[in-house]
Every structure is written in structure tokens, then in C-alpha cells.
Amino acid sequence: MPKKRPQHDEIDDQPVVPSKSQLKREMHALQQLGETLIAMTPAERSRFPLSDDLLRAIDETARIRSHEGRRRHMQYVGKLMRKEDLDAIRAQFDAIENERELRDHAFHRLEKWRDRLIKEGDAAVDLFLDDYPAADRQTLRQLVRNAQREREQSKPPTSARKLFKHLREAAAL
User: Fold this and answer.
1) Is the pLDDT of residue 15 over 80?
2) Are the beta carbons of 121 and 144 closer than 8 angstroms?
3) DSSP state letter for 135
4) Residues 27, 29, 32, 36, CA torsion sign
């Protein structure tokens, strides 16, 4: 019996049915997406629009110990992922990534503030307090002096860490 030929698109004569290799690549991508979801904590996972079947399969993964059983289970998770709203899941991943980038930028700004405070002292403290009036001036000045003293004596940066923690609290991060 001859093989059935795939239907062709009338406009550009391309096969409508994706190739077997393309289907395998898509399945592997869905399995990878499932593994990423499995690696998350339940709190992180709750932000995603996932079906009850997929959530049960994700929870079931923790019980599977054998390598072959886990491989088969991941194929099952990939199969369940085909039924999910992938656009919404990817949009949530993008939102999480954007939040992470914003948080990283905020941390870098605070690191620059910490270094500037240690380098410039009280002049920088006044500038910092202009931007973040919720910070405690006395504690900030004390931490800056201690961090400067540590740096001069080549000691471990204990006060610099405390200073960064205080800056983080003042910036509400």
C-alpha cells in the first residue's frame, strides 16, 4: 500500500503537516518547559495557568526515583503540556523574567550607592537621604563609618554587608 502524501498548501506548495523531526523538537521543548515548571516551588508554580491534570503530574514527579520511570513520566508531562495554554505560560515566564531584571537593576543601583557612601562619606549620605527619606540617618552614618574603617584596615566587609542590607530596607527591596 503506498504511503499517503501530505496535503500541500496551494499558495507556496509547502507541506501543511510538520515533519516528524519538527514534531520531536516541539515535544522536547514542551518536556523542557515541564521540567522547568517541576523545578519551581509550589508558590512560584501557582502563578501559572495550569490544569489540574498537569499539576497532579508535576506533584507525582517527586515520587519517581528510577531514571527510566522519570524519563517516561517527563514524556507524559510533555504530552499534557500540549493541552495547556502555552502562550499564557510563556507570558508568565516573561513577566517573571522582567521582574527579575528590574530587581537586579535595583540591586545594582544599591550596590553603587553603597560603594559611593563608603567612598564619599557624609556628603553621599545626604544625597542618599534625598532619594530615600525613609532611611535612618544615624544608623546609615554609623554603618558608613564602620565600613570605611573596615576597608582601611583590610578587614572582612561585615559592616559593608550590613550597610547594603540597610539600604535594601530603605529602598523597600
Assistant:
1) no
2) yes
3) S
4) negative
